[in-house]
Amino acid sequence: MTSASPALDIDLPNGTTARLMVGLEVHVELATKTKNFTSTPNVANRGYFDAEPNTLCDPVVLGLPGVLPVINREAVEMSIRVGLALGCEIARHTKWDRKSYYYPDLPKNYQISQYDEPICGEGTLEVPITDDPTGPTKRVRIMRAHLEEDAGKLLHEAPGGYAIDYSIIDLNRAGTPLLEIVTHPDMGSPEEVVAFCKTLRDICRHLGVTEGILQRGQMRFEPNINVVIHRDGQTYKTPIVEVKNLNSFKAVYGSVKHEFTRQVEEWLQTGRVMGQRAKSTRGWDDAKGVTTHQRHKEDADEYRYFPDPDLVPLNVSEAWLSEMQADMPELPAVKRRRYLGEFGLDAKACDTLLDEPGLTRFYEAVLAQGADARKAAAFLLNTGSKRANDQGVPLHELGITPTQVKGILDLLASDKVGSSAAEQLFGLCCDNPEVSPEALANKHNLLQVSDTGALEAFVDRVLADPKNARAIDDLKQGKDKAIGALIGQIMKLSKGQANAKIVTELVKKKTAAG
Amino acid sequence: MSGDFHTLSLKATRDAIADGSLRAVNVTRAYLDRIEILNPTLNAYHEVFADRALHTAQRVDAGEIKGPLAGVPLAIKDNLCTDFGHTTCSSKMLADFRSPYTATAVRRLEEAGAVILGKTNMDEFAMGSSTETCVFGVVRNPWDTRCVPGGSSGGSAAAVAAGLCAAALGSDTGGSIRQPASFCGIVGLKPTYGRISRWGLIAFASSLDQIGPLTRTTEDAALLMQVMSGQDELDSTCAPDDVPDYSAQIDQPINPLRIGLPRQYLSDKNHPTVAAMMDRATAMFKEMGATLVEIDLPHTEFGIPTYYIVAPAEASSNLARYDGVRYGYRCENPTDLVDLYSRSRSEGFGDEVKRRIMLGTHVLCSGYYDAYYTRALRVRRLIKQDFDNAFASCDVVMCPTTTGPAFPMGQNSDDPLAMYLNDIYTVTCNLAGLPGISLPGGFVEADGRKLPVGLQLLGPVFEEARLLRVARMHEKASGLSNLIADI
Amino acid sequence: MSEQPPNEPITAEQVKHVAKLARLALSPDQVEHHARKLANVLGYAEKIGQLNVEGVEPMAHAMDLSNVMREDKVNEGLSVDKVLANAPDKEPPFFKVVKVLGEGAGA
Lengths: 514, 487, 107
Description:
The complex is a heterotrimer. By secondary structure, chain A is α+β, with helices and mostly antiparallel strands. Chain A contains 16 helices and 17 strands. The relative contact order of chain A is 0.10. By secondary structure, chain B is an alpha/beta fold. Chain B has one domain (1-487): Amidase signature (AS) domain (Amidase signature (AS) enzymes, Alpha-Beta Complex). Chain B has helices at residues 10-18, 24-42, 50-61, 104-111, 154-161, 178-184, 218-228, 246-249, 272-287, 303-318, 337-348, 351-364, 369-390, 416-421, 427-432, 464-478; strands at residues 45-48, 73-77, 115-120, 167-172, 187-190, 210-215, 258-262, 291-295, 396-400, 436-446, 449-458. Chain B has an eleven-stranded mixed β-sheet with strand order 1-3-2-4-6-5-10-11-9-7-8, sandwiched between helices. In chain B, strand 2 (73-77), helix 4 (104-111) and strand 3 (115-120) form a beta-alpha-beta unit. By secondary structure, chain C is α+β, with helices and mostly antiparallel strands. Chain C has a domain at 12-50: Orthogonal Bundle (Histone, subunit A). Chain C has helices at 12-21, 28-45, 80-84; strands at 69-70, 90-91, 94-98. The two termini of chain C are 29 Å apart. Classes of the chains: A alpha+beta, B alpha/beta, C alpha+beta. Chains in contact: A-B, A-C, B-C. Chains B and C meet through helix 10, helix 11, helix 12, helix 13 and helix 14 of B and helix 1, helix 2 and strand 3 of C. Strand 9 of chain A pairs antiparallel with strand 3 (94-98) of chain C, so a sheet runs across the interface.
């Protein structure tokens, strides 16, 4: 009995092996301010996520008579940036084509897409398959990536989930720039597929080309799955199934795993192998955890692609490309290696800092001020995260500036503030991003007193207090715990501004000497 | 001169309003009166904006609106979107459609002070050469109401020739400005592809469509071109090239002038009177010192087949949006989505439109794509190269606009191919993207009718100024200027 | 790369296929009618098969323009009222169509 993959839920007959082959089509909604071919706001841009239905429409979006598209330069540049990150060959000459099919969410009844000259050609992505950044990777070849426009939404129930006996259309999403990335069938397990999806999402988010919020459909995955079966020296390939429109990693994992078993079972029962017919499409039933049959699209084999006469071709010059290359940010995999290696951060801190590109940028801005990488990380992930959680606002959007963070770190390093004062100071900075931490500390009496002379006076006063005689005795006898009560009184006396470290040392010295 | 404002050219009207000798309101009212009397016969206009036009004219008189076209009454082909009135494309599909925006060309005219009188009838979606496929009834030729005005800009041409406006806008995909101009004895200019923004022009075939003026004089064409031409950020295919001062140049004759006569255009298909017109024009230019050069446009005969592949292919896609969902005609009680689409489109479109959609769909289908569509695009390049070669030895090409004068209504309406062959002298200009102008070439008497015929001049890209100058030379020498049909 | 146009007239079956793709409902009579006329026009179009077009670049645009792009600057669109103004049927703020079953061809 052999089983090629732990993902296969059934046993195969003796002498039979089954190898899963998965390629992906990934749709990425680009977060430009405006749509791909007109200047109306883009629903995939953070500022317009929750726009009311049909409020992001203009004559172009509606496909009114007489309108014309004009391509958004930012969408083109974002596409090229993704291409560069995936090591794709960037087309020097590219164009737009019309893909024809009728559907109520597609206002012109053709989609402006790219057929035979995609903006990005062949590339590769090394996908880490363990948590170790220097560990093994899976190489997935990219076939192409092309820029097109998204469709609107056809809804079958009213807002709030009420049943209706008709369908309704919201065109807010129509015309959103959509980058479709297509891979070769290089992935051999559901784990590899999910790892690819996660890596791609990280890259796209760190490039700043998409918010990548899966629940909002800003990245949609369509695995193309089949199985290569070997039996008695013969090779059999099952028909390719494309699972449409998955928008969670769980669904990607589940559908690939389910298809693997389903296709092998089907082959065992019917012996059906890949034919001439185009691949079939299936949906994913999240509740039941199974893929489901989808009706074959009548128009699917006849899209009648032809060059869009309303748009002119695009030539990507060497100069433009090098400009974009020079502007490429560091990719998350490289950052991860640097954070773990050079900075010596632990994996958890590293993950947190890299999980949200806005935070990553904030953190690196703090480092750019000359802060110590580990101390900055620790401070942000403790003090910063705490406030972010309390306020329900992402850390990098709390209001505090990287310069202020560096200022607080400096005050901590030079013992001018203690940790609780630093936390207070963090909050004050969030509300006063224009003011320096030092000035805020001064104003709010948060600077600690480190002047030994001044501190000695406080210490002496407390030690001289008769009610403390017992504690002092205990301390002398080696009961270190007793020091707490004494220091508490000294801190109180100094209105919290005494440098606790120096006070402790003074008390120890004075009680030992006595 | 109260009743005769319509006999003034656009330029004369403009100058008289500008110098205060005419009031814009009186001019507009005179045109509106004439429309009321003659439009029931000609059916040139689908919709007239009397109140709006008078209001604009009043503002011109009050000095609130200024500009190079202040107070000039114009008509607009009904495939140009206006945010006032309806924009119907003469189709049941858009019979109730109101555009929320205005075409760039129309907006520029209005900004220059023009008074928009109304929207003119046309062949449905600009598909035709006779304005007989208009869903709001046929348009009649003002020179002989038994004849067609040509098409698809037939309503605009008839309105200009009958003095129902000072000038009009049309659109030309395969001859739709020049052919009706020829049939109606007026000037019709199809500019270089990309000279005038197509924003707001309801697309028929996007790589061929251009907006252009229909006027009674070459000077009037120059004035409208001046206002409409030039880059528009809403049209990717609109050229950034500078716009020359057409009016300043138009009275400068070109000398030396080399006129190319394509041997392929002097076929035996031409009406004998058309050949006579060509002879007259040739003699006239010779007298003015021009050199006549015989040129070769070897792929001319492939113009019609190429055009009737490329144009329907683009049209089939451009007209996919008329589906009865967001706007336009929707059938009664659709049972499901396919029924909603199919019946709305079948009931909303006329026969000719459906025929071209099917033709275009067919040539874009896998299995036929390379043989028809891609091959046609290759032939298109050969046709353009013909012209590139020709313009090495001549300044302009001269040929007939049409093989004959306007034909009687109904003559070709049941034979699409015969109708398509009307476009033989006009389509190559669109395929190559060149500017072309039709100007009155004279009158022919045939079958007891006296009808105008047009002379066509074609030039290299962005040489509208050259075309206008040569056209002006002919206009002056022939005296065929500002012709108004006596109806 | 330079396939010849077919030398046989378009069939009623092909007309039906094309009508279906183009979402046009044709009665059997109309299918016949259009088949005849389309065959006529396509027959004429086949003339381009006579030419040798080997090595000639297809010309999809009339002009040699390239790289016309727009900056990513927002203009607000139409009000919902205007968006829906021409709709044959609506359920504000939505357009309304017959109940649609199944999924679209997708982007």
